[in-house]
């Protein structure tokens, strides 16, 4: 009886061990499915890396074309060099400076709003170097 009991226990452990091994194993179909999914994700990653590189290149190009906005003194000097400002170069954008900006804008086919935007500074900035 004791021998039979030990045999049944050993058989029980063996069978339960095999069942555990089978339930923890991954089938070939599941492996193939995971490999396919992995390939798809690797391709998506590659595409995203290419997009990232392309965007970095575009940002670098844009940074080269960004116009640095001027200081008040630079604006006044450029306006004076262009013949639109006769006041003191103090860096303060007051009424005289705004009026000079308006006149410069109108003389150059821009909207005379008295505000230095990128288009105004693109033209006016050339006068700074004179």
CATH domain topology of the largest domain: Muramoyl-pentapeptide Carboxypeptidase, domain 1
Overall mean pLDDT stands at 86
Q: So what's the CATH class of the largest domain?
A: Mainly Alpha
Strand and helix order:
HHHHH
CA(first)-CA(last) distance: 114 Å
By CATH, the superfamily of the largest domain comes out as PGBD-like superfamily/PGBD
Q: So, CATH architecture of the largest domain?
A: Orthogonal Bundle
Unreliable segments (pLDDT under 50, ≥5 consecutive)?
Answer: none
Question: What would you note in describing this structure?
Answer:
- The structure is a single chain.
- This protein is mostly helical and 130 residues long.
- It has 2 domains: 26-66; 72-128, PGBD-like superfamily/PGBD (Muramoyl-pentapeptide Carboxypeptidase, domain 1, Orthogonal Bundle), CATH 1.10.101.
- 74% of the residues lie in helices and 0% in strands.
- It contains 5 helices and no strands.
- It has helices at residues 2-24, 28-65, 72-82, 95-107, 118-128.
- Helix 3 packs across helix 4 (95-107) and helix 3 packs across helix 5.
- The termini are far apart.
- The model has no long low-confidence stretch (mean pLDDT 86).
Observed structural traits:
single chain; 0% strand; Muramoyl-pentapeptide Carboxypeptidase, domain 1; mainly alpha; 130 residues; 5 helices
